[in-house]
């Protein structure tokens, strides 16, 4: 089958409309009450079109979420490891706590508890690549002599992101900039980096 | 109304049977599929009896959970802060990952996302008292000169328990004893305690 440029454009438009509708519905109704029917109606596409691209509701929502997350919180390297960790964590905290992504992610996390395939996909597509990026950024700092050679970098990543999940799950207030800065300082000190002057 | 000793014993027996039935059903069916009807049938008590003591399914399960947790992971003070933190965290990790409590708590956490009253109750009855206990244990170590006077103790508690929740929510493998020991060492170093010899 030959796909014309205008049909590709239409496809991409439908894809974007579907992802946006899915996120909007998560915010309005809560993840549990979103259906493929409602996403299709809101996006102005057929259910058949949605099922052609995604196997399930959770797959649609996860893709919407991953798409947006990748653009919003890139892991930059300014040469200042503390500043870069603060910027990354701050972006992640805002993302996880703000509609439409916050409620969508909460719904995904909740669904993961009785859906092994979804849990596996979320770890593989969303969580593990971001942990790897964080370890890679720490490793570059290590290569530049800013972090001791024997530092436990995966543990540092868990100490950085653990409190964010802890607060999210328990629905405690999100970390503010001051708390994020304190956490980064503490994690760096934990792996042997002397405090900044 | 005068309550006879034998009726009090019957009540306590019904209460325990209800809590045990609730936890067993969480393990077998998953929190979401447990009903008050099923709990009543399993415990051999009437629905009316259950509703006389608890307002909702989540209240029954939360009480079962809190009852068991308080007995299982007390915060001891042996004088060795690192050992006491390891023992406490290790108890909490086992608790959160083992049936029947693991699945029950996962269900409660999941339900908290669309039940503000439950979230409030879980924090007030379960989480906050345990955070306070941990801070109190750290404060005693501080008073004994084992931790610097300016240490940020609430942050230390989040660094200790955050990774456990992070793994639980993302359904990563639970922390083993070696990882727990490494985390405790790192958190203590983060708040200014020199590594053990």
UniProtKB/TrEMBL annotation, chains A, B:
Gene3D superfamilies: Homeodomain-like, Tetracycline Repressor, domain 2. Residues 12-72 form the HTH tetR-type domain. The keyword DNA-binding applies. Pfam families: TetR_C_11, TetR_N. SUPFAM superfamilies: Homeodomain-like (SSF46689), Tetracyclin repressor-like, C-terminal domain (SSF48498). Residues 35-54 bind DNA. InterPro entries: Homeodomain-like_sf, HTH-type_TetR-like_transc_reg, HTH_TetR, Tet_transcr_reg_TetR-rel_C_sf, TetR_C. The keyword DNA-binding applies. PROSITE patterns: HTH_TETR_2. Keywords: DNA-binding, Transcription, Transcription regulation. This is TetR/AcrR family transcriptional regulator. It comes from Streptomyces sanglieri.
């Amino acid at each position: 089958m030959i796909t014309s440029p205008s049909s590709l454009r239409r496809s991409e438009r439908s894809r974007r409309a579907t992802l946006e509708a899915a996120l909007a519905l998560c915010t309005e109704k809560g993840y549990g009450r979103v259906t493929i029917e409602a996403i299709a109606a809101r996006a102005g596409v057929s259910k058949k079109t949605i099922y052609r691209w995604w196997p399930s509701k959770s797959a649609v929502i996860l893709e919407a979420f991953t798409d947006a997350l990748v653009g919003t919180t890139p892991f930059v390297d300014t040469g200042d490891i503390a500043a870069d960790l603060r910027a990354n964590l701050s972006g992640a905290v805002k993302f996880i706590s703000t509609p439409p992504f916050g409620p969508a992610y909460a719904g995904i996390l909740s669904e993961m508890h009785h859906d092994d395939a979804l849990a596996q996909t979320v770890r593989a597509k969303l969580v593990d690549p971001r942990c790897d990026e964080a370890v890679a950024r720490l490793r570059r700092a290590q290569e530049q002599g800013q972090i001791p050679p024997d530092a436990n970098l995966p543990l540092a990543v868990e100490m950085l992101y653990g409190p964010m999940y802890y607060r999210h799950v328990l629905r405690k207030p999100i970390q503010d900039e001051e708390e994020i800065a304190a956490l980064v300082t503490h994690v760096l000190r934990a792996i042997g980096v002397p405090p900044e002057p």
